Every structure is written in C-alpha cells, then in structure tokens.
C-alpha cells in the first residue's frame, strides 16, 4: 500500500556504539531509484508515567538536561532495560525517580518523538492510587519532584515553561482523560 514511499536498505554499518545510544549509517535506495545515506540513532525505547493523584494533581519533575543546558519540567520517565516489559519499566522508574508506587496502571499510547533521526519510542502510562516512599535515584541522577494541576500544566505549556515533547503530549492526554472524552486503553 505504501510501497511507493518506502526506502530500502542496501547496506549499513554501526557508526557509533555508545553506552546509551548507537548511531547507524545506512545506504538506502529511494522510491525513485536514487541512492542516498541515512544516519539515525538506535534507542531501546522508554516509558513515561502520568502520575495522577486522587485530588487531580499531577506528579512532575525538574531535571537538568545537558544537551540543552537547562532544567526541564517533565513527567517521570526512563529507558527500558533489555528484556524488560514497558509496564515493569514504568513501575520501576516511578519508584526509583520519585519514591511513589501506584496500584492502578493503564497504558495510554505510544509516541515516536524524533522520527527523522531516531527509532526511539515512548510508551505512556497513567498511574493512579499513588503511595509515597523513598526515591532510589541512579548514581549521577539529580532531580526534584513537585505537583501541579492539569490547568496549571496547560498554562505552563502555553507559556513555554513546558517544552519537553513527552510532557506536552502527556498533558494533553491528561486534559482529555480528566474531561472524560478520552479513555486510556
């Protein structure tokens, strides 16, 4: 059906093999028969947790992100380990980063956040029934948590205080979920 748009790999190589990311460089045949190269990042995938308290407040984090040299407001999130199921990763990351556990989990959606140069995907989960505990941050991980209402988050998106794509998309999902117009899977 979409064959007229498909690019076909002719050859490829690993251009960079890092601890976290891998960069591939492939030679591809375009739909018009021409040959070109594609460089892209291989990523194992990640999860995002939309942690919603009974009073309607949402759990957020403030974390410095080195590539952009600034602190970002984000949902709790983390990389999926090899062989780890997405939901297990979400539960682990929520507790590690924030200390919270949840009794009610729902898959929301999968997003692809950088389709032009990465195969990374993010699985979003709604977490309810939250109980506080002690965070277990990874060595070298520094963040602080806080809460906000969904209307406050929407204002932060509108003002440009929240620009992280997973958090923007998750905020819009929460708005629809709270209004009862969208239901997670």
UniProtKB/TrEMBL annotation:
Gene Ontology cellular-component terms listed: cytosol
Pfam families according to UniProt: NUDIX
GO MF entry, a single one: hydrolase activity
Keyword Hydrolase among UniProt keywords: yes
Signal peptide (residue range): none
Catalysed reaction, written as an equation: GDP-alpha-D-mannose + H2O = alpha-D-mannose 1-phosphate + GMP + 2 H(+)
One record GO biological process: nucleoside phosphate metabolic process
Keywords from the UniProt entry: Hydrolase
Residue ranges of domain Nudix hydrolase in the record: 41-170
InterPro entries, per the entry: NUDIX_hydrolase-like_dom_sf, NUDIX_hydrolase_CS, NUDIX_hydrolase_dom
Cofactor: Mg(2+)
Record has Hydrolase as a keyword: yes
Family to which the UniProt record says this protein belongs: Belongs to the Nudix hydrolase family. NudK subfamily.
Protein's name according to its UniProt entry: GDP-mannose pyrophosphatase
Organism: Massilia cellulosiltytica
Phylogenetic classification of the source organism: Bacteria, Pseudomonadati, Pseudomonadota, Betaproteobacteria, Burkholderiales
């Amino acid at each position: 059906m979409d064959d007229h748009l498909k690019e076909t790999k002719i050859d490829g190589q690993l251009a960079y093999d890092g601890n976290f990311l891998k960069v591939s460089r492939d030679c591809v045949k375009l739909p018009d028969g021409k040959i070109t190269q594609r460089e892209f990042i291989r990523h194992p995938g990640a999860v995002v947790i939309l942690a919603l308290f009974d009073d309607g407040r949402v759990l957020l984090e403030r974390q410095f992100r080195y590539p952009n040299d600034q602190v970002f407001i984000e949902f709790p999130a983390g990389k999926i380990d090899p062989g780890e199921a997405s939901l297990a990763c979400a539960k682990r990351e929520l507790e590690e980063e924030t200390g919270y556990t949840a009794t009610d989990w729902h898959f929301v959606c999968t997003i692809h956040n950088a389709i032009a140069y990465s195969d990374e995907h993010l699985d979003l989960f709604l977490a309810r029934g939250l109980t506080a505990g002690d965070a277990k941050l990874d060595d070298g991980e520094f963040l602080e948590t806080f809460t906000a209402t969904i209307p406050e988050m929407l204002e932060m998106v509108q003002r440009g205080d929240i620009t992280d794509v997973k958090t923007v998309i998750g905020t819009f999902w929460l708005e629809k979920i709270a209004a009862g117009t969208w239901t997670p899977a």
